[in-house]
Design a protein that fits this description.
The chain is mainly α. The protein is about 45% helix and about 10% strand.
Length: about 350
C-alpha cells in the first residue's frame, strides 16, 4: 500500500499547472527567521504624491505578514525588511516585488495581489530590442493597440494585469499567464504582430475543451507568421560617393588671400569705398535694365500668322502671262468703246 502511494506522488505529471500547492502556514516554520533581510527600491519623483496617499494602506497590508515598510522622500526610496515575528521566508521577496511595482506606476490595488501565493509579477525590459527610437515607439504602441484594445485582450486571455510604462512592461497575475505575457511582449518588439499570439491563445483555449485533441499536435490549427521583406522607401536624391583619394582636399583661400590676388588688399580705404560704390552702382544698372526689358515685353506686338495657301499662290503666278492678259483686256475695252 505504501509503495502505491510513493509511486503516485513521485510519478510523472501530465499537467504541472493543475497541481495544487499546499498553503504555507506559521506551524510549518515555528522558529521564524534567523537573520533580518532588507530590500530598498528607488522611485521617480512623479510617484511621490501617489505613494504618500496610499502609504498607510501599504503598511497595513505588509503588517499582516509581519513586514516593516519605510518611505524615504529625501532619498526617494522604498524599503522593506523582516521582523522577529516573520515566519514566511519568501514573503520578503514578494514585498520587494510589491515595492518595485509601486515604483513602476502600477496602482496599489493591482500591486498588492503579488503578496498572494498563486500570483507573481514580471517586469520586462523592452528598450534593448530596438535601436531606433521611432521603431521602438511604433512597436510599443502596437502592443497597446488603438484605445488600448490589444492590451485589454492580452489581459483577458492571460488573466494578468499588464501596464506599459516607459521602457518596461509590468505584469501581475498567475505564473502561467506571466509566461504568455512575456512571450507576446518579446515577439511584438521583434516585429511580430501581437494578433498572431492572441489568435493562437484563443485557439488553444478552444482546443483545450475538446478531449479528443488533447494528445494530438495543434500545429495545423495555429496561425503561422511569415516574415516579409517590405521594400523600404528610397531617398529622392541619392548622394553619389566621390572617388576615394588619400590626400586631403585643398585648403580654401582666406579673405586676405583673395584680396591679395585681386590687388584690393593694397588699396586705401577711400579707394576701397569707391570700388564698392562703383560695384553697387553697376549692379543697380543691370537690375534696372532687366526691369525695363521686362516692362517692354508687354508693348512688343505679336508676330502675325502667315497663311500658307496665299504664299503658295503668289509663288505660282507667272508675271509675263499676267501682263499679256491685262494688255489684251485693255485692247478689247478700247475696241468696244469705239
Amino acid at each position: 500500500m505504501m509503495e502505491d502511494q510513493t509511486t503516485e506522488e513521485t510519478g510523472p505529471v501530465d499537467n504541472a499547472w493543475a497541481i495544487k500547492i499546499p498553503k504555507f502556514t506559521p506551524e510549518d516554520n515555528p522558529h521564524g527567521l534567523l537573520e533580518e533581510s532588507k530590500f530598498a527600491t528607488l522611485f521617480p519623483k512623479y510617484r511621490e504624491q501617489y505613494l504618500k496617499e496610499c502609504w498607510p494602506l501599504v503598511q497595513k497590508v505588509l503588517k499582516e505578514h509581519h513586514i516593516i515598510a519605510e518611505l524615504d522622500l529625501i532619498e526617494g526610496s522604498l524599503t522593506v525588511k523582516t521582523t522577529k515575528k516573520t515566519w514566511d521566508p519568501y514573503i520578503i521577496i514578494k514585498a520587494r516585488d510589491f515595492m518595485k511595482l509601486l515604483s513602476r506606476s502600477v496602482p496599489f490595488e493591482q500591486a498588492s495581489r503579488v503578496l498572494d501565493d498563486e500570483i507573481g509579477c514580471d517586469i520586462i525590459k523592452i528598450n534593448s530590442f530596438v535601436r531606433k527610437k521611432e521603431t521602438f515607439l511604433k512597436r510599443r504602441q502596437r502592443l497597446i493597440g488603438p484605445n488600448g484594445v490589444t492590451l485589454k485582450s492580452i489581459e483577458l486571455l492571460t488573466e494578468c494585469y499588464v501596464l506599459v510604462q516607459g521602457n518596461t512592461v509590468s505584469a501581475v497575475g498567475p505564473y502561467k499567464g506571466l509566461v504568455q505575457v512575456r512571450r507576446i511582449v518579446e515577439d511584438t518588439m521583434k516585429n511580430i504582430h501581437p494578433m498572431y499570439n492572441i489568435k493562437s491563445l484563443m485557439i488553444k483555449r478552444e482546443l483545450m475543451k475538446d478531449p479528443r485533441l488533447r494528445n494530438e499536435s495543434w500545429d495545423r490549427f495555429l496561425p503561422k507568421f511569415k516574415s516579409k521583406n517590405v521594400p523600404r522607401k528610397q531617398p529622392k536624391q541619392k548622394v553619389k560617393k566621390k572617388p576615394y583619394t588619400p590626400f586631403p582636399p585643398p585648403q580654401p583661400e582666406s579673405k586676405i588671400d583673395q584680396q591679395l590676388a585681386s590687388g584690393e588688399y593694397f588699396l586705401k580705404d577711400d579707394q576701397k569705398r569707391a570700388k564698392r560704390r562703383h560695384e553697387k552702382e553697376e549692379k543697380q544698372l543691370q537690375s534696372k535694365k532687366a526691369r525695363e526689358e521686362e516692362r517692354k515685353k508687354d508693348y512688343i506686338p505679336p508676330q502675325e500668322k502667315v497663311n500658307k495657301e496665299d504664299v503658295s499662290n503668289e509663288a505660282t503666278v507667272d508675271i509675263n502671262k499676267f501682263k499679256a492678259k491685262m494688255k489684251k483686256a485693255s485692247k478689247q475695252q478700247k475696241h468696244l468703246s469705239k
